Amino acid sequence: MIALVAVLIFLVSTVFAMLGMGGGMLHVPILLWFGYPLKTVAQPVGILLNGITTLVALVVYARNRLVDWKGSWGMAAAALLAAPLGSIVARMVADRLLIILLVLMIFFAAIRTLMTAHKAEPEKFAPSRMRQVLGTIVVAFAAFLGAMLGLGGGTLISPMLMWMGYPTKKAVATSAFVVTVSSASGFAGRVGHMAASWELILVLSLAVMLAAWLGSWVMATRAKPKWVKYGYSLLLVGVGIKLLIPIL
């Protein structure tokens, strides 16, 4: 069973690494489908894999000089502080409500990505001051909500950076940096309640490392942003429907 989980997580992590996200919004549903408990396995393992994926992707993006280091430090600091709070709140919320919120986040990301897929890449993006102030506020909220749901916040961070005028590849790369910080902080708030086996953690960690390298390399050197966004949106819609049916 672990091998099948690893294959599925490898596939989705490859796609999400291309978008500067860790894949937590799909890691958690995959683990749930295979019967792993939500709060003690699916969410903590999901956010750990989320951070590993974006960390490996970040190395590739940094080598290609795509990360906006200057504009993202405030965002990273906000993520570092807000994510543990989200992890604490998650332990006080019913599992059913957390799954419903996860489905809403999935549909939001799918719709928002489809709306921007056809737009031309911007030639300029927001001034440094605006990126720091506006980005810090929105990322704090994204990191809090992401950690509460077992995600890294990239679902909101990548679209937010694009709204601010970042070119797709620069938004993806910068999001990878912020999500890495957010995931690490969120996982720190959950590690004491994790009940996953070391075999599961090791196999899945190796799978996402390979996937992250492959996905980030393709995005940095080969991929067309428009087609990546279309494929990503369709994948999210399918997963959202799959999660929603049992609840309804």
From TrEMBL:
Matches recorded under PANTHER family: MEMBRANE TRANSPORTER PROTEIN MJ0441-RELATED (PTHR43701), MEMBRANE TRANSPORTER PROTEIN YJNA-RELATED (PTHR43701:SF2)
Organism, scientific name: Sulfobacillus thermotolerans
Entry's transmembrane regions: 41-61, 73-90, 96-115, 136-165, 200-221, 227-245
Keyword vocabulary terms for this entry: Cell membrane, Membrane, Transmembrane, Transmembrane helix
Any Pfam family matching the protein: TauE
Cellular localisation: Cell membrane; Membrane
Protein name from the UniProt record: Probable membrane transporter protein
Family in the record: Belongs to the 4-toluene sulfonate uptake permease (TSUP) (TC 2.A.102) family.
InterPro entries: TM_pro_TauE-like, TSUP/Inactive_protease-like
Record membrane topology: Multi-pass membrane protein
Predominant location: membrane
